[in-house]
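Researcher: Quick sanity check before group meeting.
Model: Go ahead. Protein one:
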Amino acid sequence: MSASTHPAPSDEPITPDLLAQLQAGLLDDATATRLRRHVRTEPEAAAMLAALDRVRHELADLADDAQSAPPVPHEVTA
């Protein structure tokens, strides 16, 4: 995926969406650096990023769980 071409303004609120973009590597280097600094100094931002990490790990775990979804019909996979 390519990096965002529009850096977030420094006064933009830190949102879960912005942190998810950071996690996915979608932000330009300057914005990513600013957000990482913010996460290190702000407990609320750190908690949001930790929550996103947990969700990401839980979703990855579902990929290994055959019981997490019904079987795919044969006509769909054929």
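Researcher: Fine. The other one?
Model: Protein two, sequence then structure:
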Amino acid sequence: MNKTALTTDQIKAERSALNSRINMLQETQKAIPGSQYADQIEDLIKTALDLSGAIDTIAHGGVCLLYTSDAADDLLCVD
């Protein structure tokens, strides 16, 4: 398995960049309310906030993969 670990500083930098983009989207949303792009902007903000939460979860070790024995058997082609 090839892992690329991010340092704390890299995670902070990524979060900061993402937060800047979220803020930009929110400002755009305020500047052009009711525009034809309102739904797309709202979707982008939601996705960015979800990504922000995922970064937090990953950064704090909150991700784990669970394999059941059946799933493992399927990977090994065992009946």
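Researcher: One line on it for the slide.
Model: The chain is about 65% helix and 0% strand.
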